[in-house]
Amino acid sequence: MNDMVKELAQGRSVVSRGAMLDGQSDDQQYLTFMLGAEIFAINILSIKEIIEYGNLTMVPKMPPFIRGVINLRGAVVPVIDLAARFEKGEATLSRKTCIVIIEVDHEEAQQVIGVMVDAVNEVLEIASDQIEPVPSFGAKIRTDFIDGMGKVDQKFVIILNVNQVLSVDEMAELAQV
Q1: Phi-psi region of 46 (alpha: psi -120 to 50; beta: other; left: phi over 0)
Q2: Model-wide pTM > 0.85
Q3: 2-28 burial by CB neighbour count: b if 16+ within 10 A, else e?
Q4: How would you class 36 by CB atoms within 10 Å of its CB: exposed for 0-12, middle for 13-18, buried for 19 or more?
Q5: Cβ–Cβ < 8 Å for 118, 96
Q6: Of 127, 159, 143, whose CA–CA distance to 40 is shortest?
Q7: Cα–Cα distance between 29 and 128 in angstroms, integer?
Q8: Which helix (H) or strand (E) holds 147?
Q9: Are 44 and 91 in contact (CB under 8 A)?
């Protein structure tokens, strides 16, 4: 884990260390993580912290992608299994499994949601000219879930749109089905 990931894991903000201090850079910082064999990324501005997986309370009658809820300093936070959300089956737990705490926009407010990932990699800076548009085919997840495809070391990193992936309204509709 690099230093920024360690600071996120300790609940510290890393935004102030961004490359955009003078407003001169168009690089964005992303937390990269694994789901199966694929690498995904989320803009660090949406991330509050990273915690160990555990102490989940199961909630009856929830869709398979909602693993349960956790108590995060007195607040009830739902935990979403991203692998299940992407219809890839439930994630397999390992010692590297963790929960990334994210803030998403919901009705002019912020909703805190935890997402379960197989492993956290690192925080990367990806220049805007290294981000390709969303592909129209070939991705194994819905294209509205993707903000772009970041080119990093001859590979692509799928940059997620957390407000779509974790749409509170859509997940509530799915829970009622």
Answers
A1: alpha
A2: no
A3: eebbebbbeeeebeeebeeeeeeeebb
A4: middle
A5: yes
A6: 159
A7: 11
A8: strand 146-152
A9: no
User: Side chain identity at 40, as an amino acid letter?
Assistant: F
Structure-block tokens of residue 93: 């737990």
Q: Taking a C-beta distance cutoff of 8 angstroms, is the pair 85, 165 a contact?
A: yes
Specify the length of the chain in residues. Answer: 177
The DSSP bridge partners found for residue 3 are none
Smallest CA-to-CA distance from 121 within 37, 55, 62 is with: 37
Nearest to 159 by CA among 67, 50, 38, 48: 38
Q: What residue has token string 């940059």?
A: 159
Q: Can you give the C-alpha Rg of the chain in angstroms?
A: 16
One-letter amino acid identity for 65? F
Mean pLDDT of successive 10-residue stretches along the chain, which has 177 residues: 60 43 64 92 94 91 88 93 84 91 83 93 92 72 81 90 78 54
The single-letter code of the amino acid at 49 is E
Instruction: Round to whole Å and give the CA distance between 100 and 94.
Output: 15
> What are the start-end ranges of the H helices in 86-161?
none
pLDDT, residue 102, reads 94
- 3-state secondary structure at position 162: helix
